[in-house]
Amino acid sequence: MAKKILIADDEQNIVISLEFLMKREGFTVCIAADGQEAIDKVRSEAPDLVLLDIMMPRKNGYEVCQEIRSDPQLQGTRILMLTAKGREMEVTKGLAMGADAYMTKPFSTRELVTRVKSLLDLPA
After folding, report:
1. Bridge partner list, 50
2. Which pTM does this prediction carry?
3. What span, in angstroms and rounded, lies between the C-alpha atoms of 107 and 122?
4. What letter would DSSP give residue 82?
5. Is residue 57 a contact partner of residue 47, using CB atoms and an 8 Å limit?
6. Residue among 62, 67, 55, 59 nearest 94 (CA)
7. What angle do CA 101, 102, 104 make, to 5 degrees?
8. Which entry of 8, 40, 49, 115 is 20 to 30 Å from 20 by CA?
9. Are the C-beta atoms of residues 7 and 45 closer than 8 Å to each other?
10. CB count in 10 Å sphere of residue 20
11. CB atoms within 10 A of CB 19
């Protein structure tokens, strides 16, 4: 069965390219355009991995990450923060909030696919 990935980003161009890339790799994809929708989709869709932007309306990525990590039923959800915020302080904060990995935009699609597969324990 295909692994499910939630793309949580409010930037439509990024969502379109990520959705194409993840579907091409054989993943099932669902999308959230803001932080609150991301939390709702994590609960309703039970994705294996969330590609999470930080700068989003309603709730930012840090808040989403923290809410997912504080819910015992969602402990198995992997989180990859994918954001333009690349300063060391932001990376440290993202990982401290419970993200499993952190990548900055712009990113290499090959590197992203490798990280996603690694987080999901799939062969690269």
Report:
1. 6, 79
2. 0.94
3. 20
4. E
5. no
6. 62
7. 155
8. 40
9. no
10. 12
11. 18
